[in-house]
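#random but structural
TW: two for the price of one
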Amino acid sequence: MMKKINLNLAAICLTVGIAIMTGCAAGNYSPISELSESKDKSKSYIVKPGDILNIQVWGEPKVSGEAVVRQDGRFSIPLVDEVQAEGRSLTEITNDLVSKLSEFIPSASVNISLNQSSAIVYYLTGTFAKPGEFRTDKQVTILQAIATGGGFAPFANKSNLVLIRKSGENEKRYRLSYEKIIEGLQPNPQLETGDILSVQ
């Protein structure tokens, strides 16, 4: 009787252990819904290093002109030493610039537009036909990136795509399926600089 109880207890422990391990593994992946949310947010362009901005201050040609966002995420124009641009929308940068210029130009009318976006750098790893580093000056979705990489190599597990994306100092991982993206059951988000798309 004792042996039977021990065996049942061992079976329960094994089941619980597997459940915990499965839960931990699932916990390593972020919810795919975040990718749909980021797609909606992309309507408001977020500035990044290397972008070239066109700054127009009405009636002030000496302050107007192009500004390149440096690798530290900032740019400079006459009268204003440093303006933080990386990670902000054009509207946020405009409001900040108006505030900084108010000391010199009260009620300044400022318009900021994007002249040129810096290249998006992403990586394909694993069993793609052409894995490696890719650069593009235009927005690119997961499906477009896969096509650029020549599609999948033989025996690739298309149902096991992993998108690795930087999130501050950390990384987020999203498990996706090529077939579900094609069918519209999962999002087909635009890639961001530094994204890694992997397939086994």
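TW: number two ↓
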Amino acid sequence: MIAKRITDFILALSALLAGSVVLIAIAVAIKLDSRGPIIFKQKRVGKDGQLFEIYKFRTMATGTPDLPTDQMLLLPSPITRVGKFLRKTSLDELPQLVNVLVGQMSLVGPRPALYNQTDLTTKREVSGVLEFPPGITGWAQVNGRDELADDVKVAADQWYCENWNYWLDWRIIALTFKAVFSKRGAY
């Protein structure tokens, strides 16, 4: 696991430095498009069930309720114009590289649940998934993303945790790029 942490740190730092112009351009676009902060912070469940604040580029109007994706789909869309593009391309996830740098997340691991997704968190705790650091991407994300039911996500996350190896992470990273470019399963 030490190789995983070292790789995470080096890749996250390199991506932040290399992508700094893109990050600044996204920040400017968000500010020009709508009022509110550039970065959206949200409580998520991390390793061992500890809560932490995940960082994302803000894609919704300020004041939008903090609900899971499936519940948000039932409401009128609060997503901004720039937010639609950021979500479609998954660029809204880039600030999570800071979470990786400070050790709250990994590049690859089970996607961290919202603090209020108690059923999902309980299932993950029972299956041992919470013993693993959460990731920006993971086995469940490359096999369906938001369209998967909680039981399927937990089974995929459990499989990943039980079968983890350094090369599996590289495979998931490659599959993530494929999923992002195909926009499969993204809402």
